[in-house]
């Protein structure tokens, strides 16, 4: 989505200016043309040479140091997006007041493009009513504000807001701004992810190898496309993606309950979790002691979340199921698509190296009810998530 896009990256005079080097590099690697504009303050922290090396383009700085072009007008007009990261308290004040005393502030006044800012400063500076009032003004004018977050500051530990968001998270916000008119913008997307755990006794469980990665990547990608995302997750060790609402569940019954509660509001339901199909018939109150000889565990089926969903689905909701098949995966997937009244189904072929559980990559086939079929060859789960969401958008079109 970044290929051929033009971004102006304004960098102001805060310690977090070093993070913007990674942002500039990330955007460039993704295919964007990045014009970096440094304030005088920013140059005290990171020099233009570093930005020129990662963007392969000249860095701009002064209103007056120009070769004939009206940079403060042309740069902003040509940009698809302007990002200011880090944005100092000083920059927020100058922008809020409509000042134009350097290239960056003049450009921010003269641009019709969307603006995203990532404030970063000492926690007291951020909490100061002057800064808060400036931010409120800028938000009111339609600027998007990413962060700051709580965490260690250059001057020491802090649990208050002030630290700049990490470059990758700023990139996520940037993508969300650019896709603000896209098909998933403002849509409510629910993603289920991870395994469930069915208790045998207070310490033992039945579970499976699902890592939750596919669902977490889907939630992140849907959020980046502008959706309001709820991620219903079984137990995983993953860090929840920025921006999504996380609902933690343990058992298949809890997962079914959480999906049921979310349904009335949902536009797209992506069922990437691997819920346990069976649970112990009874849960022992105390830990079962070790005994000699074979033991038998009686299992009963858990609720079929897909089937229970169908009865309560809002008519316009798109339901995407996930299946792990072996053998003739496509034929089995088509049957499941029909039997479970799904709109789309994503089939993992778990027997292929690089696919299925517990790896960072996947290989899938996406089928839809209208007869569409797409094979997605080996790639990262993040890239597979994009392919799945592209298929969902095409299907809903
Ligand atoms: C070592 C040092 C670190 C600073 N870090 C920040 C910061 O993180 N955030 C901030 O708002 N100001 C910070 N300042 C203050 C700004 O650099 C100062 O307000 C400057 O005028 C900002 O100019 P600019 O916004 O035009 O780049 C820092 C100053 C120094 C000397």
Question: What tags apply to this protein structure?
Answer:
binds flavin mononucleotide, single chain, 8-stranded mixed sheet, 19 strands, alpha/beta, Rossmann fold, 397 residues, 5-stranded parallel sheet
- Level of helix content? 25-40%
User: Which CATH-level-2 architecture of the largest domain?
Assistant: 3-Layer(aba) Sandwich
Give the distinct bound molecules: flavin mononucleotide
Q: What about the largest sheet? A: 8 strands, mixed
Question: What's the total count of β strands?
Answer: 19
Radius of gyration: 25 Å
By CATH reckoning, the class of the largest domain would read Alpha Beta
CATH domain topology of the largest domain: Rossmann fold
- If helices are DSSP runs of H or I spanning 4 or more residues, what is the number of helices? 14
Strands side by side in the biggest sheet: 12-11-8-13-16-17-18-19
The secondary structure category is alpha/beta
CA-CA gap between termini: 19 Å
């Amino acid at each position: 989505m970044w290929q051929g896009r033009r971004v102006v990256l304004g960098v102001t005079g805060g310690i977090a200016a070093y993070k913007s080097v990674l942002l500039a590099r990330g955007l460039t690697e993704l295919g964007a043309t990045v014009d970096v504009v440094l304030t005088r303050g920013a140059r005290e922290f990171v020099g233009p040479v570093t930005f020129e090396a990662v963007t392969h383009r000249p860095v701009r700085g002064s209103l007056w140091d120009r070769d004939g072009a009206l940079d403060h007008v042309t740069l902003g007009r040509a940009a698809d997006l302007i990002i200011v990261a880090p944005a100092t308290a000083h920059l927020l004040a100058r922008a809020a007041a409509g000042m134009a005393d350097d290239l960056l502030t003049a450009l921010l006044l003269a641009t019709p493009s969307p603006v995203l800012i990532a404030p970063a400063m000492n926690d007291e500076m951020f909490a100061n009513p002057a800064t808060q009032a400036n931010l409120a003004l800028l938000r009111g004018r339609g600027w998007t504000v990413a962060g700051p977050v709580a965490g260690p500051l250059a001057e020491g530990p802090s649990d208050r807001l002030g630290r700049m968001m990490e470059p990758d998270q700023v990139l996520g916000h940037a993508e969300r701004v650019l896709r603000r008119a896209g098909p998933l913008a403002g849509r409510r997307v629910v993603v289920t992810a991870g395994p469930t755990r069915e208790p045998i006794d207070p310490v033992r469980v039945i579970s499976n190898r699902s890592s939750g990665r596919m669902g977490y990547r889907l939630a992140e990608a849907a959020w980046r496309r502008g959706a309001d995302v709820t991620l219903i997750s079984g137990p995983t060790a993953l860090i929840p993606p920025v921006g999504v609402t996380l609902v933690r569940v343990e058992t298949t019954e809890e997962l079914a309950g959480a999906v049921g509660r979310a349904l009335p509001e949902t536009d797209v339901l992506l069922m990437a979790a691997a819920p346990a199909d069976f649970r112990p018939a009874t849960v022992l109150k105390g830990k079962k002691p070790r005994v000699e000889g074979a033991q038998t565990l009686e299992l009963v089926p858990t609720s079929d979340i897909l089937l229970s969903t169908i009865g309560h689905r809002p008519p316009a909701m798109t339901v995407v199921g996930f299946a792990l098949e072996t053998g003739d995966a496509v034929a089995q997937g088509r049957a499941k698509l029909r039997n479970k009244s799904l709109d789309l189904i994503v089939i993992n072929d778990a027997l292929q190296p690089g696919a299925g559980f517990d790896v960072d990559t996947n290989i899938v086939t996406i089928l839809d009810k209208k007869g569409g079929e797409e094979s997605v060859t080996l790639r990262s789960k993040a890239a597979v998530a994009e392919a799945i969401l592209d298929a969902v958008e095409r299907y809903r079109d």
